[in-house]
From TrEMBL:
Compartmental location: Cytoplasm
Coiled coil: 134-168
Protein name per its UniProtKB record: GTPase HflX
Keyword Cytoplasm carried by entry: yes
GO molecular function: GTP binding; metal ion binding; ribosome binding
Source lineage: Eukaryota, Metazoa, Porifera, Demospongiae, Heteroscleromorpha
NCBIfam families per UniProt: GTP_HflX
Domain Hflx-type G: 175-354
Binding site for GTP: 181-188, 206-210, 228-231, 294-297
Binding site for Mg(2+): 188, 208
Cofactor dependency: Mg(2+)
Cellular compartments per GO CC: cytoplasm
Top-level taxonomic group: Eukaryota
UniProt keyword list: Coiled coil, Cytoplasm, GTP-binding, Magnesium, Metal-binding, Nucleotide-binding
Length: 362
């Protein structure tokens, strides 16, 4: 529970909120108000004292739970899914990414519309309201469905163009590798170190929402297409997963996945397990993978002395003991340590790429 709450705090701050209080409850059964009577009273007392703008729950609430809790507290209540979608909305930079987030927000909103509502009052700014709330979109079920249909039609056109681009990439016969990993594991920092792409690599969750691809020269000749993608996190609902469909397409197209792990994180094994489980759930459990053990500069001062003792002290990553995982490379993306060895390992796994002169233009 504590790890999840720490992430929720981080998510809230990524959405521009300041956390003024936390209440914990262990429950093993469904309750109409999400929390029990005692915790509900405790929460009411905390709200009276702190006067926050919103209450955030660390699970996806059912529409009934959300309405009941808002009624009992007389406060706006959002859940983890709404918060993640809000952060997505802040970081979506491409038109496709923005439309995909808006689609996910509307699909999330639809079952939460109360039958007697004829319209949604302007919600104003703040977390949990980016997208549909800010533009005062019609919210009766018929109009929301119409908006969903329109976005889907626009996305279909975008995806047709994306498919044409992917087909050109396939014809070019340039091998493709994609970075995956837990959010904030250092994927974008590694991507920049390898490609000089200048992708934002701030200390924020989901800072990379839209996939970015660059060409790299491989050590033994030839080229590689390397993609950076959105990070995974625990408790990803299907609604959230659908919001980064472009990332999923990149993962399926890749010849090799580079699973980046922040080995200094106290929950590195659990984070690796979340990533591996998510890949399996997405039908990618058999996709070839190479482990990239990142942030070694925080464990040693000398890149040439990653000693047996240092490696022996690393946490056991039992979750990645899969036949699809065929090796690991220890690096520091921030310091640039061991990146040539990483590219050599990638080339060994994907095979020698075609020389640039023999590739098609993509």
């Amino acid at each position: 529970m504590e790890d999840s709450l720490i992430e929720l705090d981080y998510l809230a701050r990524s959405a521009g909120a300041e956390v003024v209080g936390i209440i914990r409850q262990r429950a093993d059964r469904y309750t109409p108000t999400y929390v029990g009577k005692g915790k509900l009273q405790e929460l009411q007392e905390l709200l009276e004292e702190e006067r926050p703008d919103v209450v955030i729950c660390d699970d996806e609430l059912t529409p009934t739970q959300q309405r009941n809790l808002e009624s009992a507290l007389q406060y706006k209540v959002i859940d983890r899914t709404a918060l993640i979608l809000d952060v997505f909305g802040r970081h979506a930079r491409t038109r496709e990414g923005q439309m995909q987030v808006e689609l996910a927000q509307h699909q999330y909103l639809l079952p939460r519309l109360v039958g007697q509502w004829s319209h949604l009052e302007r919600l104003g700014g703040g977390i949990g309201t980016r997208g549909p709330g800010e533009t005062q979109l019609e919210t009766d079920r018929r109009l929301v469905r119409r908006r969903i249909q329109k976005i889907q039609e626009e996305l279909d056109k975008v995806r047709q163009r994306r498919n044409q681009y992917l087909e050109r990439r396939r014809r070019a016969a340039v091998p493709m590798a994609t970075l995956v990993g837990y959010t904030n594991a250092g994927k974008s920092t590694l991507f920049n170190a390898l490609s000089d792409a200048g992708v934002p690599a701030e200390d924020q969750l989901f800072n990379t929402l839209d996939p970015v691809t660059r060409r790299l020269d491989l050590p033994a000749g030839g080229e590689l297409l390397l993609s950076d993608t959105v990070g995974f996190i625990q408790k990803l609902s299907p609604t959230v997963v659908a919001a980064f469909r472009a990332t999923l397409e990149e993962l399926h197209e890749a010849d090799l996945l580079l699973h980046v792990i922040d080995i200094t994180h106290q929950k590195a094994p659990e984070q690796a397990e979340v990533v591996e489980k998510t890949l399996t759930d997405l039908g990618l459990g058999g996709k070839p993978r190479l482990l990239v053990i990142n942030k070694m500069d925080l464990l040693t001062d000398d890149p040439n002395e990653i000693s047996a003792d240092a490696l022996a002290g690393l946490p056991e990553l039992t979750a990645v003991n899969s036949p699809a995982v065929s090796g690991r490379v220890f690096v520091s993306a921030a310091k640039g340590w061991n990146l040539p060895a990483l590219l050599e390992a990638v080339q060994e796994h994907v095979g020698k790429a075609l020389p640039a002169s023999e590739t098609a233009v993509v």
